[in-house]
Amino acid sequence: GENVEQHPSTLSVQEGDSAVIKCTYSDSASNYFPWYKQELGKRPQLIIDIRSNVGEKKDQRIAVTLNKTAKHFSLHITETQPEDSAVYFCAARDGLTFGKGTHLIIQP
Amino acid sequence: GAGVSQSPSNKVTEKGKDVELRCDPISGHTALYWYRQRLGQGLEFLIYFQGNSAPDKSGLPSDRFSAERTGESVSTLTIQRTQQEDSAVYLCASSLQGLAGEDTQYFGPGTRLTVL
Fold it and tell me: B45 touching A, CB under 8 A?
């Protein structure tokens, strides 16, 4: 089955700096890679996704890159703000297999 | 319209008892998913329903876990003879087309299950 590894488990950055979270997957048949944001005590919400036919997708301060050959994809958040503080999860295997999450802390 | 709803929001039970968790998906969504999230952990896939197709049960951890879905509406997740390691938040999600459409999953608020 699919295995998704996510790093780092915790990431602390200064407000205004960039944050990068990386995931690797094992199943080369995976074609869909969503990213979710989960604030404390709340439900996960999709923030961006990418499909295997593109290498990069951007939405304002958030971007995702995909390298199918190396089987890894990354989330990039630029100009971080306090409201970006949350746990971020990547997923593969058509969106069913999740990484263990990255706790992003934005330092004021 | 209304989002995904789940009930109860919290459930405390004694070891060995059966529990039933309910999920009401967004109206018109053909796909429904159940996940388990232990404290501080990621989401663990349990089961996936798509229309009238046989469900994908590959994530169910043991035969104590089962789920049903009535048509394209409500789903119930049943855990028999609960164990302390079953304590977690159980999240339900729905999507319009399911895996074939690679579309957005919308999550419910979850049911926090505590097994004493």
Answer: yes
Q: Quick: pLDDT tens for A58-107.
A: 999 999 999 999 999 999 999 999 999 999 999 997 778 999 999 999 99
What part of A 2-61 touches B (C-beta under 8 Å)? Answer: 6, 31-32, 34, 42-46, 49, 51
Q: If you count residue pairs, one on A and one on B, with CB atoms under 8 Å apart, how many are there?
A: 46
Q: Kindly determine whether residue B48 and residue A96, on different chains, have CB atoms separated by under 8 Å.
A: yes
Which of B35, B99, B105 to probe the A interface (max A CBs under 10 A)? B105
Residues B16, B81 contacting (CB under 8 angstroms): yes
Q: How many CB atoms lie within 10 A of CB B114?
A: 13
- Least Cα distance to A23 among B34, A32, B99 occurs for A32
pLDDT tens readout for residues B13-41 = 999 999 999 999 999 999 999 999 998 88
